[in-house]
Amino acid sequence: MNKNKMNYSVFLPIPFLTVDQTEMEYLQGHTMISVLYTDDEPALLELGKIFLERTGDFTVTTATGADEALHMLEKEKFDVIVSDYQMPGMDGIEFLAEVRNNYGNLPFILFTGKGREEVVIQAINSGADFYIQKGGEPRAQFAELSHKIKTAVSGRRAEEALCRSEEQSRDILSAMPDIVMVYREGIIVYANQMTLEVSGYSSEELIGSYIIKFIDPGYHKSIRKKMDMRNSGENTDDYEIELADKSGSLHHVIVRTAPMIFNGLPSTVVILTDITERKRMETALRESETLYRTIFENTGAGTIIIREDNIIEKASAVFSELSGYLLSEIEGKKSWTEFVAPEDLEIMKIYHISRRKNPDTEKKTYEFRFLDRYGKIKDCINNVAIIPGTGMSVASVVDISYKKEAETELKNNNEELNASYEQIKAAEEELKAQYATLAESEGIIRLSEERLLMAQEIGHTGCWEYNINSGKIWASDEALRIFGISDRGEELPTEEIESCIPEWGKNHKALFDLISEGKKYDTEFYIHPADGSAPRYIHSVAKKIEGHNNSPTRILGIIQDITEHKNAKEALRLKNYAVESSMDGIGIADLSGIMTYANPAFISIMGYDDLSEVIGLHYQNFPFNTEEGQEIFNELKEHGRWSGEVMGRKKNKTPVVLDFSINMINNSEGIPVAMMCTFSDITKSKLAEEALKKSENRYRSIFDNANDEIIIHQMAPDHHPGRITEVNRRAIKTLGYSRDELLNMTIEEISHPHTTEECNQINNIILRDNRAIFPATQFTKDGRKIPVEVSTNYYEYESSPECVAVIRDLSERITAQETLSRAHNQLKLISGITRHDLYNQVTAMMGYLEIMKLGENDISNGEYIEKLDASLRRIYSIVEKTKYYGEIGINEPLWQNCHISADRAVKELSPENAVIRNDISTNTEILADTLLFRVFYNLIENSQRHGGDITTIRFSTEESGDDCLIIYSDNGNGIPTAEKEKIFEKSYGKNTGLGLFFSKEILATTGITIRENGICGEGARFEIRVPKGSWRTAGPDN
């Protein structure tokens, strides 16, 4: 079809009725055309009625004048009026004017003997559909009238069908859920109700306005290009734009356009599908992916995703830092087992295997020893779970080495400190009891003993003494070591010690307050050790010692390095901060289910305003389904943990989809003391997942239910078609292979162009244009060849080149083209035969009649009448033969019983002098043209006309390899060798010379051949060869 010519037979990409369809349906329901024929000559009325009604297409009502005809029109409905021009009273033109005034465009044909030009002009100006002049051969005259009547009526019915179709179009456009507008030359001429609702404009604001003004200016250039393409008759693909409604809100839409007839004029319909919500969901899905990546990288734990083969698929930056490996060295290369200390590996493997068998019941959180790149062992806690719907798992690894070490050190230090306190207290009491009785001379000995006892009691904790009277300070070796001083020397390096304490003034004041006011001295401070090592946190406690007169004499104190304890405490603070700032909701409840803690994310996700609203609530306030909540609680009590998706209930009673896990919190003795849950809001991702699934199902449905084959295949490195990766149902049905068989084949195994050169040309086109359309041949599993048209598009999927090929079966199109070509040839042949042979016969008849008129010959009129009769019979025979020939190949071939077809031919001809034996098997069938019995008819007729004294005719069958032979034989004169091929030529032989020629053509429509191979003088023998696939033996199972 010329692409510059618009096709208005299809209004829209929806099933509207076309005019041709409507006319066909109308004519099928109205097989007769009612004609009102008006003439003042009864004889002509009677003659016209006979000629028209003899065809079976018309019912004719006659009236002898215009007045009588108008009276009939009031009572009865007619399809067409045929009227004479010159009639008494009201003539044909006046009658026409009355019809137009009262009955609109009812078809009107003026059929008159008046041939004056002014009458013709007057008739046309008054609205006559046709003007026919009477005269000439009656049959031709009324044949022309019959044709004009049918033309006028079909035109009227077509107009009515067009009106109905436009009304239907308007109804469908109005009811469509999409935005629909119709424009002509860029101006809107129609907008449906949905357009008004979405745009916010009134019908008056839209109709008559240029459609381009309602489109974002950024799209004007491309839109004008699309409009120009549509105006020039080119098809345009669907495309996306943004439209602003009256309030300024943008709507993302898909645009589809098509030509249509609207109000009788060529127009363009625009259908806009609002996909704003779909776009929003796509954006939300991308944001969700970003959120997932952010959480994955910023949880503070070393997170990894593990494949079924133990290889780490993905790792976070924290895990990389923990292990000492780069991410590129881990992902896709390292197994998780490489990071487990040998002594823990076996139990970890057992957990790993058991988790895949029983993901809901297997232990998910446990401690193990982590092995980094440098062989260093780190105490870690691991939390691992299976990713639903996959064979992969996700694990979070937290380094708790510092915690373990700090706890151990702190425990030891506390025990030592408590022992020191007790010992100091006991020593003090003892010293007080002894002090009064000791002589002044024993002071030096007592002081030395106290120092020795202090050093022994305190152990690794540093101790010091300040003599108030002398102002001297003493410190143990351990105290100096804490300050980074290894060489104490003869004098205590007081200034060096003080320089290590940034807040020395604060410590000095506390010491002064202890001495002067007796205030408690218990302080923490940090120091910069003198040896340049890392800063340390110090805890110092001191006590004032009084003399006889209750005046202070000494200050005794201890210092303890609490750096690790302080770091552990800071880590705990950071952990609490992480809980508070977590994007996941975290809550704690007591064993009765009463909430005791909730982090801000918990409060936000569940729709509460602050913590006070949550504390004290029972856990059953939060599940949407309380029965499901009770089931989770029961599972928790039985197994100590539960995880999965659950429908939560917000404060305002609205549902929220949660990825939820809960477990028991045990004390140091393993006894449950509380419950802790964590969850994240996955409502948006679930909605996006459902939308994506619906979209995938919709496109899969389109893919599987397409009328054409769709095959997706890879492209080999040499740019030739490679292995098939997907097929739709139509491809499976057409090719006869299973889906699994096709997915193990290449596209070239089932379809390719005709030559290697064509293959290379097509591949070059695909690489250049990313698409190509070309003819090819397909090979089915059962060996059939199917001519097809392949439309292929090249693209890359996951960095791999692929093509999607849409393959259309051209068999029916080619068959239709062949049928049309054959019909065209048949028409040419019939025309040639009819024109040539009939012209000869008519010329002879005219000659005989002219001689009879002259009466100048001795031959009687009876003989001329016999000659005329023979010519007429020959004309009749030609007409009969060509009538059947015109039907060859028109209908689809059918499976036909050969025995029955031969019997039918015998019954129609009823040969009197020959015995006919039909030995064809009663269950032999062949696929042939519906005129098969005419083949047998022509063979019998040929024997009767040209076989001489024939007494026996026989039909039989034989098998020749895979073919079936149908044999026709007689015992007549036979066919001379020189004529065995000529007898099948057109017009060869006596009579019409068409019988065997037509027989050959009838059989050829399904690939069946015929030849004559009898012996001249012994009888004719015709051999009809039916190829494999076109014959069968019917039976109960077939």
Folded structure, characterized:
This is histidine kinase. By secondary structure, this protein is an alpha+beta fold. 42% of the residues lie in helices and 26% in strands. The protein contains 31 helices and 39 strands. Helix 10 crosses helix 23 (683-705), helix 14 packs across helix 19 and helix 29 packs across helix 30. The longest helix is centred in the last third of the chain and has 44 residues, at 811-854. The chain is elongated, with a radius of gyration of 53 Å. Mean pLDDT is 80; it is low at 1-29 and 455-459.
How would a textbook summarize the main sheet?
6 strands, antiparallel
Q: What ranges have pLDDT less than 50 throughout 5 or more consecutive residues?
A: 1-29, 455-459
Supply the helix-strand structural class.
alpha+beta
Count of individual beta strands: 39
User: What name does CATH use for the topology of the largest domain?
Assistant: Beta-Lactamase
Q: Output the CATH homologous superfamily of the largest domain.
A: PAS domain
Termini separation: 44 Å
Rg (CA only)? 53 Å
Largest sheet strand order: 27-26-31-30-29-28
> Helix count, per DSSP?
31
Overall form: elongated
- The residue fraction in helices comes out at 40-55%
Topology summary:
Blueprint: H1 19-29, E1 33-38, H2 42-53, E2 58-63, H3 66-75, E3 80-83, H4 92-103, E4 108-112, H5 117-126, E5 130-133, H6 138-175, E6 179-184, E7 187-191, H7 193-199, H8 203-206, H9 220-231, E8 239-244, E9 250-262, E10 265-274, H10 276-298, E11 302-306, E12 312-315, H11 317-323, H12 327-330, H13 342-357, E13 365-371, E14 377-386, E15 393-399, H14 401-435, H15 443-458, E16 462-467, E17 473-475, H16 477-482, H17 494-499, H18 504-517, E18 521-527, E19 536-546, E20 552-561, H19 563-581, E21 585-589, E22 595-598, H20 600-605, H21 611-614, H22 626-639, E23 641-649, E24 655-666, E25 672-681, H23 683-705, E26 709-715, E27 721-727, H24 729-735, H25 739-742, E28 751-752, H26 756-769, E29 771-779, E30 785-797, E31 800-809, H27 811-854, H28 861-885, E32 894-897, H29 898-909, E33 915-918, E34 924-928, H30 932-946, E35 952-960, E36 963-970, H31 995-1004, E37 1009-1012, E38 1021-1026, E39 1031-1033
Parallel strand pairs: 1-2, 1-3, 3-4, 4-5, 33-35
Antiparallel strand pairs: 6-7, 6-10, 8-9, 9-10, 11-12, 11-15, 13-14, 14-15, 16-17, 16-20, 18-19, 19-20, 21-22, 21-25, 23-24, 24-25, 26-27, 26-31, 28-29, 29-30, 30-31, 32-34, 34-39, 35-36, 36-38, 37-38
Helix pairs in contact: 1-6, 10-23, 14-19, 27-28, 29-30, 30-31
